Here is the input.
Amino acid sequence: MAWSEVHKQTSRLKILDSAAVLFMEHGFDHIGINDVMQHAGLTRGAFYNHFSSKAELYREAILRAAKVSSEGVAKQSNGCVKTMVDTYVDVNHRNGTAFRCPLAFLTTDIHHQDDDVRNVYTQIFKRLLGVLSQGDTNTLAPEVIEKSILMVGSIAISRAINDEELAQAILKTCRDKVKEGFESA
Amino acid sequence: MAWSEVHKQTSRLKILDSAAVLFMEHGFDHIGINDVMQHAGLTRGAFYNHFSSKAELYREAILRAAKVSSEGVAKQSNGCVKTMVDTYVDVNHRNGTAFRCPLAFLTTDIHHQDDDVRNVYTQIFKRLLGVLSQGDTNTLAPEVIEKSILMVGSIAISRAINDEELAQAILKTCRDKVKEGFESA
DNA sequence: GTCTATAAAGGGATAGAC
DNA sequence: GTCTATCCCTTTATAGAC
Here is the structure.
């Protein structure tokens, strides 16, 4: 690959990483192209050499955030599902430290977006169902669905409310409930 | 009360009802003052005789939507908690027909707002905990928290995903789970 | 490939007539 | 109290120099 090609790919990834962090934290409408490019160390004009629109950036940023998020969880949990749940349903996730799962950070934002974005969200949710079903082919078993809603819902709702004590209680309760039935490492 | 006073209160309520519907359905950023006023049958210029800012309107609209929502649920359920859950965790709620609970429709929008808005959201959530605790003073019992997350989370997440079949499965599973332990009417 | 400059559109808020 | 007209700022997207 030529130098200019490498340079372009590097810039693209920087833009994508910045977008992933900023969109998850502040939502689609509160982040402009300018914010993303400044965070990436570039200027606004260069954006359209990498993405055709803000909407396209959003789609790719969600996938990027999901990748970073699932890799971050996997790294800490070493394949143990109970530890994975502990890492996901945690105050550090709620506060946006380390990683930010788009399922929980963008829940209601997604409903206002077009079908392309909603498809991406749906695919990521189905991946979570796959992980929770633990090899069982029935990803729609009641326990699997219930646990997925508790995981995503507890993070999303604990982020919305303005009461630290209640937020902590929500996280602890849901964390314990989701871990029920999984084998210890 | 003088005629002009009555007129003003009538206009104010029309604005508030329009704002409640539009904000719940499309979110804070996708609805302008103009949209709200047109929906209410008025023009933009008249808005600031009733509210001092868009943010103030948002706070009041959330409270209004919560009131409409809880009254709508109560009306259909006649005091029976199981029926209340059936009405709330339903595809008609998911699709925004009839009523729209701000807890589930604005979950991630709220995190981006100021403390006043987040306080309102938190108070509404605590009211739900009170209803689910059924007179028991311990609104932070694990079952109460768990049920509240399943109710709000199932509506919020089923609205985000783009797969009708999965959405229906989520609603049915969570509805059944939340009803466990409550007495039939 | 990245920069500066600018076009074009949208929306919050205010002024003043009636 | 409600209307029309307007100010002003933000933001997406494009044009053209280097």
